[in-house]
Amino acid sequence: MCGILAVLGCSDESQAKRGSRFLLVSTRTLKHRGPDWSGLHQYGDCYLTHQRLAIVDPASGDQPLYNEDKSIVVTVNGEIYNHEELRKRFPHHKFRTGSDCEVIAHLYEEHGEGFVDMLDGIFSFVLLDTRDNSFIAARDAIGVTPLYIGWGLDGSVWISSEMKGLNDDCEHFEVFPPGHLYSSKEGSYKRWYNPPWYSEAIPSVPYDPLVLREAFEKAVIKRLMTDVPFGVLLSGGLDSSLVAAVTSRHLAGTKAAEQWGTQLHSFCVGLEGSPDLKAAKEVADYLGTVHHEFHFTVQDGIDAIEDVIYHIETYDVTTIRASTPMFLMSRKIKALGVKMVISGEGSDELFGGYLYFHKAPNKEEFHGETCRKVKALHQYDCLRANKATSAWGLESRVPFLDKAFIGVAMSIDPEWKMIKPDLGRIEKWVLRKAFDDEENPYLPKHILYRQKEQFSDGVGYSWIDGLKSHAAEHVSGKMMQNAKHIYPHNTPTTKEAYYYRMIFERFFPQNSARLTIPGGPSVACSTAKAIEWDAQWSKNLDPSGRAALGVHVSAYDPAAVPSSLTTGTSSAMLVNKKQRVMEAKAPELTISS
C-alpha cells in the first residue's frame, strides 16, 4: 500500500506561500505507508503528493502519474488487477511506465468520471484535470484501501490515506465512503458501486459449489500480480488456510513464481501454545510452505498498544485487540524482505461466519446482517488489515473482497448459508463444502471444518484477558462513573474501551476524528441489530467470539461475565464444552472437478 495526500484549492495566500515545503512536511506522516519514493506535483493552488511502496514495476512506476501531455495528473494508492487488459483498449495511447495505476489517467481521458466501475482492484485516488482545474477522488467498492477527506476554511479540500495526514487547517474531516466518487464540479459524492445486494433484497440464486470455488480461485490468482517477494498470512483457520491452499496450488507458472520460486512462504503469530500456532503449523506442513512462526507475550502486546492506536486510528475494542498481533507480525515479516502478503479478511461477513449467526432466526435476518457487515468492513477488518501492515511498509491483499467474488457470494440464496447443526451445517458451510474435494483435497477435513476463531481469540485467549487486566490498572471506577461526561460520543462502557479512548484522544483530539469511529452495542462482533436475536446477549456485550454463549466451544461462563466486564480485574472463566458442532459430519453434496 502507498500513501496519498492532496490539497486542492488553497485560496488563502499565507497557506499557499507555504507551498511544497509545507506539503512535504505533512506527507512525511504517511512515509511508513510508502518508504520507497516521495513524489509531489503542483499545479496552481493544487498539490498532489505520493509515498510509494513499490510492488509492480518498482523501477519506473513512481508517482504522481500522467497522461501523454501531463494535463491529467493522478496520485493512487492501490492495485489495478486488470490494467493489462485495459491498456489493450487504448493502442493509440502512450504509456510512460509499467505501473498498474497509470491506466487511470488514460481511462479518465477517454471516459471522464464514468470509468471507475471499469477498474478491477483496490484503490483510492485523486485525479487533477489541469484543463479546467477540476478534480475527482474515488475509493474502491468495499473500502479495502483507507481514505479521508477534509475541508479548510479557505475553501481547500484535503484528501489523505490516513487521518494523521490531515492538517489542523481542516475545519472538518470524515471517512471517504467506499464505492463513491467525489467531484469538485458538483462538490458532493455519488455512489459508483451499485451491486444488487446493496439494497438488502433477498437473493434467490441456488448454491453452486463449483461456481463459488472457481470465483475464489480467480480472485486469488489476480492477487499474484507482483514484482516483489510475498507470502500469505496463515492462522490455521478456514479463511487463511483456503487462501494459502489456493495460492500454493496456482503459484507455479506465474510471473511471481518465475521471480521468487514456487514454494510459498506463510506467516503466523500467537502466544506460546495458542490455537492458531498449532493449526497453522499443521496446514503449512500439509501444503509444504516455508512457514514462519512468530511468538509474542501479553506484555509485548501491551507495550505496543499506543503505537497500534496511532497507526490504526481507532478506539474500537475489537479492532485494537486484533490489530496488535498483526502489527507485531508485520514488523517481523517486513524484516525478512517481504513486501506483500495475501490475507483472509472478509469471508465471515460474506458468509455469516461469526458465531452469533447461529442465532439468526430466518434467512431474511441472516442476509440483512451479512449486508450490514460487508458495508461496515472498511471501519473494522479492512482498517486493521491495511493499516497494521502498512505501518511497516507491507501491503496486504484480500481475495475474499474481490468485487466479482463478492457478487457471487452475495447472490446465493441465504437459506444455504444459514447455520443448521441438525443438518451438519456449521458456520460458512457453503464455503467449506465448495472446497471439500475428495479426489484432490485442498485441506485436511478437520481444518476445513474447524470452528471459527476470531483473530484476537485465536492468537491466545490470555491475550484478551491480559488487556482487560491492564486496562483495569489505569482506569478507576470513578473514571467510569464520569465516562458519559468526558466522552459523550460513543461513551466507553468498559475499562478496556475507556483505556483505548484515552490514548486515541491524545493522538487525535479533533471532534472530527472521534466521529470517524463507529459505535453501538455488539456481541461477538455483531451489529446492534443482531443483538435482538438473543435476549441473553444484551447482558454480555463483549466483541470476543467467546461471548457467543452456548455456541463457542470455550464460551464465557455467564456467571463470570458481569464481574469481568464491570471491574476489568478478573479474567472471565471458561466453560469447556464438547465440540459438537465443529466435528459434525457435513451432508453429502457431490462436486465434480
Features:
single chain; 593 residues; alpha+beta; Glutamine Phosphoribosylpyrophosphate, subunit 1, domain 1; Rossmann fold; 2 domains; six-stranded antiparallel sheet; 22 helices; 17 strands; amino-acid biosynthesis; glutamine amidotransferase; ATP binding; Asn_synthase; asparagine biosynthesis
Main sheet: strands, sense, barrel: 6 strands, antiparallel
- Could you give me the name of the CATH homologous superfamily of the largest domain? HUPs
Question: How do the strands line up in the largest sheet?
Answer: 2-3-1-9-8-10
- What's the CATH topology label of the largest domain? Rossmann fold
* CATH architecture field of the largest domain: 3-Layer(aba) Sandwich
Plain-language structure description:
There is one protein chain. The chain has two domains: 3-194, Aminohydrolase, N-terminal nucleophile (Ntn) domain (Glutamine Phosphoribosylpyrophosphate, subunit 1, domain 1); 199-567, HUPs (Rossmann fold), CATH 3.40.50.620. The protein starts with a strand and ends in a 26-residue tail after the last helix. Residues 556-593 have low confidence and may be disordered. Helix 8 packs across helix 9, helix 8 (298-312) crosses helix 20 (495-507) and helix 17 (461-474) crosses helix 20. The protein has helices at residues 13-27, 83-88, 103-111, 209-222, 238-251, 255-260, 275-287, 298-312, 317-335, 347-351, 363-375, 381-390, 403-409, 429-434, 445-448, 455-458, 461-474, 477-481, 483-486, 495-507, 511-515, 561-567; strands at 3-8, 37-43, 46-52, 65-66, 72-80, 121-129, 134-139, 148-152, 157-160, 170-175, 180-183, 188-191, 230-233, 265-270, 290-295, 340-342, 395-397. By secondary structure, it is of the alpha+beta class. The protein contains 22 helices and 17 strands. The protein is globular and about 65 Å long. Helices cover 35% and strands 15% of the residues. The longest helix is centred in the middle third of the chain and has 19 residues, at 317-335. Helix 7 links the parallel strand 14 and strand 15 (290-295). A six-stranded antiparallel β-sheet has the order 2-3-1-9-8-10. The chain has a six-stranded antiparallel β-sheet with strand order 4-5-6-7-11-12. The chain has a five-stranded parallel β-sheet with strand order 15-14-13-16-17, with helices on both faces.
